[in-house]
Write a structure and sequence with these properties.
Distance between the termini: 55 Å
Shape: globular
CATH topology of the largest domain: Pseudouridine synthase
Number of helices: 6
Helix content: 10-25%
Number of domains: 3
Order of helices and strands: EEHHEEEEEHEHEEEEEEHEEH
CATH superfamily of the largest domain: Pseudouridine synthase
Strand content: 25-35%
Radius of gyration: 20 Å
CATH class of the largest domain: Alpha Beta
Number of strands: 16
CATH architecture of the largest domain: 2-Layer Sandwich
Amino acid sequence: MSQSQSPEQRKFEVGDEGGRLDRYLADACPEITRSQIQKLIQNGNVTVNNLKERSSYKLQSGDQITLVVPSPESAVLVPEDIPFNVIYEDLDIIVIDKPAGLTVHPAPGHPDHTLANAIFRRFPDLAAFGNSLRPGIVHRLDKDTSGLMVIARNEKARIYLINEFKSRTVKKYYIALVKGKLVPQRGAIDAPIGRDPGNRKRMAVVTKGREARTDYRVIEYIGDNTLVEARIQTGRTHQIRVHFAAINHAVFGDPVYGTKSKLLDRQFLHSKYLELKLPSNGQPCAFTLDLPRDLEEVLQELRRH
């Protein structure tokens, strides 16, 4: 059942954030610990401008980083029959509704029962290109966030989508319920995000973090909560959750950046709208997805009280 695995190569271009090489990569690759990053640097798996550097190397704007992540010798993506809905598909892309509670791809602590396993079962041809542990996956949603994701079906589409996300031409809107009465009714949270220095498993607004911006508009005030539509201009780890927590309006039910709720066993966050240009012809295509039942039931319960 084993199969040969090719190392995964990731490339990054440093913006104005700078900082240490190991810290930058730890922020850019949240599924890899900083100690693992340091070991990869020590083993020569990281170059900056095609040169090997130390973990403490101070990055400059424009630096080109290449990270080679060796695949575990025994790592094999096993197809699993995990249900998910396909919203759209053509020869280049698949747009899906990711269920809450499902990690997107295998990572330390989550070797299986991921969206990648489910995709591999439904679309086995995706294993023929790219990283075999992340077939066609070009972006992520948090485990307990539901909603729209796009998957590439071939290498050309994968590279195209990566560049579209990098150039920020893909539009992504989320629906979130946050604690408290959020004012003003339209605004932006523009604050850099990086690893929380006090807890490496969390992210936080930090001075030397990576640029991050979240635009929002209030949809409805419900008691001591606010239903908002949020558009992320950047795609940092836990961005919406971190940004709203930083202004004292944590996402409802978020156990990491806020507090748990008896009404919901996850954070109230849903990827509602996705707009992109199709790889085949460059034509804009938009997808909208209603709130799932568990989130609608929370809103109904809060409105009743």
